[in-house]
Design a protein that fits this description.
The complex is a heterodimer of chains A (about 350) and B (about 180). Chain A has about 350 residues and is α/β, with parallel strands linked by helices. Chain A is about 35% helix and about 15% strand. Among the domains of chain A are: about 40 residues, Monooxygenase (Up-down Bundle), CATH 1.20.1280; about 100 residues. A twelve-stranded mixed sheet of chain A has the order 1-2-3-4-5-6-7-8-9-10-11-12. Chain B has about 180 residues and is of the alpha+beta class. Chain B has one domain: Potassium Channel Kv1.1, Chain A, CATH 3.30.710. In chain B, β1 and β2 form a beta hairpin. In chain B, α3 packs across α6. The N and C termini of chain B lie far apart (about 50 Å). Classes of the chains: A alpha/beta (about 350), B alpha+beta (about 180). Chains A and B meet through α1, α2, α3, α4 and α5 of A and α6, α8, α9 and α10 of B.
């Protein structure tokens, strides 16, 4: 028997040694660059690597977005290869630029494309400030959507509850960004997300949670705007959240003292275990401030971790504050006085 | 200690915490309970099992450059631990930071052995072995992927694309390439 060179190579080929499902299993551990390279090697490996490569789409630039949309437009499904959009499980826009300055037709194509990612588990459009995705809100239904992040244009607010309720059995993480003024929010339908674990967004939206949603949430990230001055009203909404253990507040107006926030925390969610507060500007915790905060901490009998970063703290000894607070609240095991950013010194004391 | 019997009928006394990194064996032990009976592994040969379960202490013998790559067979001492041990949770973080010496030597076993190890890892259900960076040789390509031609050469893959297809594939994955 005469073997051609090609047949001889095929004899020793990886695909004769390893079954396709093992090759596919190994590929799930490959980097994106490896997968792109694998797609270029042979038909068999392309067919195995392509579904893995298109599982998770992360777009960071306009050029990337355009290239991705070109591909989605040009590849037609055949009998042997399914649609590329069927592979997508995660779609993330990682920068504002991605959707800014897209030509009108390209933007329309993107808006009509996303509802076709039927198997999406995670959709992150939080960085998108340019496109509205109204069609998606009105009609799309993803059978396994678990994480949803979206910047809501005010006139689309009323569409959000029905979109969420279409995914009520699957959504666990919800993140909404909205500029709507808390006093001018239209009436919204009740939101029913009985599996919601984490809510990240403005406080007004919590008003529309039904009881099962409220009782399911364990972590809340509240974002305040400069005109959002009624901290107590926001925290009152968290009161009925029986499973809540972590509370993070961002953008608290500069002139509202930490003690005001903590008083409301103690009043409405006294069983909280983790609290982090961030003011709009850089906040300075002076020692007299720390003294005022201490009695508030004393009221939180379950507090485990207290984080109050963004402070340049050069004028006094942070450690004094840490000791003062840990003395006030005996359950505390982690205190952060300075910023979270790694570039700046962080004071973190683990008291064991 | 657990007694394992390989496809070529060799018996291995192995520590329980080592074999339990294999989900398959762990489940088996849970189902059967404590027993002196050997566990048969009909899909794994002794030479492969040795690689997968080498004990953690003392120097380990690893073949470098097998039949395909060179005629000379040498052995090296590996101070690091075999990958089956790397799953222990407290070490996971430490381990992921350095692509271990073991990786490099592991990848330089001959190809046949490499494939057999991958098959065994799949059969025994050992995740840490499957996720090894098997496309890298640890020296030249620490960053980024190998070029497709090299992957073809390494694994004897025939390029069955037409030039048009090749051009199309390059284009279709552009979005994932410029980073």
């Amino acid at each position: 028997m005469v073997l051609t060179r090609r047949a001889a190579t095929e004899q020793n080929s990886i695909s004769r040694w390893l079954p396709n499902e093992v090759l596919a299993a190994v590929m799930t551990y490959c980097s994106e660059a490896d997968l792109v390279a694998l797609c270029k090697t042979s038909r068999l490996l392309r067919n195995l690597a392509r579904p893995v490569l298109y599982r998770s789409i992360s777009i960071g630039t306009t050029a990337q977005m355009k290239a991705f949309l070109r591909t989605m437009k040009s590849i037609r499904p055949t009998s042997s290869t399914p649609r590329l959009s069927d592979h997508v499980r995660q779609f993330v826009v990682t920068d504002r630029q991605c959707t800014r300055n897209l030509p009108k037709r390209t933007a329309e194509f993107l808006s009509s494309l996303i509802p076709k990612f039927h198997h999406l588990q995670s959709l992150d459009l939080g960085f998108n400030k340019s496109l509205e995705f109204t069609e998606m809100l009105e009609r799309a239904s993803f059978s396994n959507l678990s994480n949803f992040s979206y910047t809501v244009p005010s006139h689309n607010l009323t569409l959000v509850p029905s979109f969420l309720n279409r995914h009520s059995t699957t959504i666990k993480d919800l993140s909404l960004i909205s500029d709507a003024h808390p006093n001018s929010v239209p009436h919204l339908d009740t939101v029913h997300l009985p599996r919601l674990k984490s809510y990240d967004g403005p406080s007004f939206f919590i008003r529309f949670f039904d009881t099962s949603t409220t009782c399911s949430v364990t972590t809340v990230f509240l974002w305040f705007r400069p005109y959002d001055r009624d901290i107590d009203r926001a925290l009152m909404l968290l009161g009925p959240m029986t499973a809540l253990h972590s509370f993070f507040a961002f953008g608290i107006p500069d002139d509202i003292p930490e003690t005001t926030v903590l008083e409301s925390v103690a009043k409405h969610i006294p069983r909280i275990q983790t609290v982090a507060l961030r003011k709009d500007g850089a906040n300075q915790i002076s020692y007299p401030n720390a003294l005022e905060i201490a009695p508030c901490l004393k009221k939180l009998k379950y507090l485990h971790s207290f984080n109050i970063g963004d402070d340049d703290g050069e004028d006094y000894d942070d450690l004094e504050t840490v000791y003062l607070w840990s003395g006030a609240c005996s359950t505390l095991s982690s205190i952060v006085v300075r910023t979270w950013a790694p570039a700046v010194t962080m004071i973190l004391v683990k008291l064991s | 200690m657990v007694l394992l019997v390989t496809s070529d009928n060799e018996q291995f006394q192995t520590e329980k915490d080592i074999v339990e990194r294999s989900v398959l064996i762990k489940n088996m032990l849970e189902d059967v309970g404590e027993s002196d009976q050997p566990i048969p592994l009909p899909n794994v040969s002794s030479s492969v099992l040795k690689k997968v379960t080498q004990p953690s202490t003392g120097p380990t013998e690893i073949d470098v450059r097998g039949r395909y790559l060179s005629t000379a067979s040498t052995t090296v001492e590996s101070p690091s631990r075999p990958p089956i041990l790397e799953q222990s949770q407290d070490e996971t973080r430490k381990r992921t930071t350095d692509i271990s010496e073991w990786d490099q030597k592991f990848i330089t076993v001959d190809q046949e052995m490499l494939f057999e190890i991958i098959l065994a890892a799949n059969y025994l259900d050992i995740k840490s072995l499957l996720c090894r960076r098997w496309l890298q040789d640890g020296s030249q390509h620490d960053q980024g992927a190998r070029p497709p031609e090299e992957i073809r050469k390494l694994f004897n893959i025939v390029n069955d694309f037409t030039p048009e297809e090749e051009a199309q594939i390059k284009k279709e994955n552009e979005w994932a390439e410029d980073r």
